[in-house]
């Protein structure tokens, strides 16, 4: 799907800023670093979740540099090793062993073999191991880190199960999640296998540490990770969300069904989002906007909101915004106009948790038809020519820790917003990675001009040189293209 809301769009009012803001950021570290062949260079941040030490991996076509920082972010160790077999591979993740040895995982181009390189930063050595996927391996759905272990969720060819590989301490464990006893249907309401279902609706992993891009929030099949659990949600039906709780420790699957809020007519603009053991569901048509929060374990409703086209939505923290193709976004003044424009589009909802508050974006993207009259000398009445355009609409809202909506147009910038604002205004930074820690973010990047590796800390809030807050609402921030955990070579 064509992405309409790129990073710069919600900074579109930047030109209106008359004052200079010094956002909450601190330079933590800076050290000389010479990297070659920058087009194939990467940076990866990693946290030891047990000791809270931070590792930064930077590499080029010759060497890999390992920088180790303690929890106070002081450099405690530095190790450089040569790169040989990893050159033709893609880095897909990391783990940290109980004896504090980091391991990087490099996948072959066909994703059938993984090279595991373990680094000993004490005696300055490294060790290589290979892992081969089974012969029937089809593809990798996604990967993630949890409690210092590295997990790969994979699909076998023509099988109705998923395999979860855990790579840690030089060993590999596997859990098998069997979906053959569950019912799935295609878009024509014909029963199909799980394998065919996720082929039609590919599973998309959601990163909880950044704003979810709007086009990703519209996905029908989503994957969320929680402690010892993987949550899969499927919104192929306009009536319900089908969810599956995968227990990482036991391999058990629990199926859950959450009906969308009831309305007088069936709506095609529906979706859901899992966050912090809650399921957020939205539903909209030309007359009503419905929103409900449910407890994921019990299925009970926690909050339920309903607004008609004649109502004012009191918790709106941004204008109603609409954009057609690549034209300038414009504001929709009323709830009626918003519902008219979102009706029939693919619906999306995303939630970003920050300091006990939940920042929510309700959205819709899709094609709509229009027409014009073409006149020629043979037809005085003209010919009606139809065409389709891509349209997106959305607005932002905020929930407090009690899940009540809070209207605050002067909400201070969040750390992630400050980070993206910094990148927007420093376009020469091409090589970077971000890591979320407690209540702040670390941005690691390479300054090619000074040949320096730098780390910056970003927190919520801002300082202003003159009066006035240049950022007036969340609509000025994008739902940006996500940081991938690893930037592909």
TrEMBL record:
Keywords: Signal. It comes from the Bacteria. Residues 1-18 form the signal peptide. This is Uncharacterized protein. The lineage of its organism: Bacteria, Pseudomonadati, Bacteroidota, Flavobacteriia, Flavobacteriales.
């Amino acid at each position: 799907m064509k992405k309409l809301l790129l990073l710069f769009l919600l900074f579109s009012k930047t030109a209106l800023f008359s004052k200079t803001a010094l956002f909450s950021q601190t330079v933590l570290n800076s050290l000389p670093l010479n990297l070659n062949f920058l087009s194939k260079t990467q940076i990866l941040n990693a946290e030891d979740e047990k000791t809270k030490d931070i590792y930064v991996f930077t590499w080029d076509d010759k060497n890999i540099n390992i920088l180790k920082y303690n929890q106070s972010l002081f450099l405690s160790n530095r190790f450089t090793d040569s790169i040989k077999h990893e050159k033709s591979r893609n880095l897909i993740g990391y783990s940290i062993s109980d004896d504090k040895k980091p391991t990087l995982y490099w996948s072959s181009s066909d994703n059938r073999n993984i090279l595991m390189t373990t680094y000993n930063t004490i005696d300055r050595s490294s060790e290589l191991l290979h892992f081969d996927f089974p012969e029937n391996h089809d593809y990798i759905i996604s990967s993630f880190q949890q409690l210092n272990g590295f997990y790969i969720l994979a699909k076998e060819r023509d099988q109705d199960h998923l395999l979860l590989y855990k790579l840690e301490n030089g060993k590999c464990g596997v859990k098998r999640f069997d979906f053959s006893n569950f019912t799935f249907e295609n878009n024509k309401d014909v029963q199909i296998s799980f394998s065919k279902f996720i082929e039609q609706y590919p599973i998309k992993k959601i990163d909880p540490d950044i704003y979810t891009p709007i086009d990703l929030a519209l996905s029908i099949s989503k994957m969320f990770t929680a402690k010892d659990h993987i949550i899969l949600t499927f919104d192929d039906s306009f009536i319900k969300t089908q969810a599956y709780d995968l227990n990482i420790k036991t391999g058990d699957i629990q199926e859950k069904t959450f009906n969308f809020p009831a309305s007088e007519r069936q709506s095609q603009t529906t979706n859901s989002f899992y966050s912090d053991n809650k399921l957020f569901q939205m539903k909209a048509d030309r007359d009503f906007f419905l929103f409900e929060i449910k407890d994921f374990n019990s299925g009970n409703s926690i909050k339920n909101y309903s607004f008609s086209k004649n109502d004012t939505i009191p918790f709106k923290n941004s204008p109603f915004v609409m954009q057609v193709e690549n034209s300038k976004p414009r504001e929709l003044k009323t709830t009626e106009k918003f519902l008219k424009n979102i009706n029939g589009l693919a619906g999306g909802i995303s939630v970003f948790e920050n300091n006990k508050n939940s920042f929510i974006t309700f959205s819709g993207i899709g094609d709509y038809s229009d027409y014009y009259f073409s006149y020629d000398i043979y037809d005085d009445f003209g010919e009606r020519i139809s065409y389709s355009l891509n349209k997106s609409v959305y607005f932002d809202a905020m929930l407090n820790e009690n899940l009540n909506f809070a209207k605050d147009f002067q909400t201070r910038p969040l750390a992630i917003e400050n980070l993206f604002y910094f990148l927007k205004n420093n376009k020469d930074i091409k090589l970077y990675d971000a890591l979320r820690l407690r209540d702040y973010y670390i941005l690691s990047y390479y300054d090619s001009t000074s040949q320096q590796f730098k780390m910056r800390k970003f927190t919520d809030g801002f300082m202003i040189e003159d009066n006035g807050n240049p950022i007036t609402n969340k609509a000025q921030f994008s739902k940006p293209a996500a940081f991938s955990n690893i930037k592909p070579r």
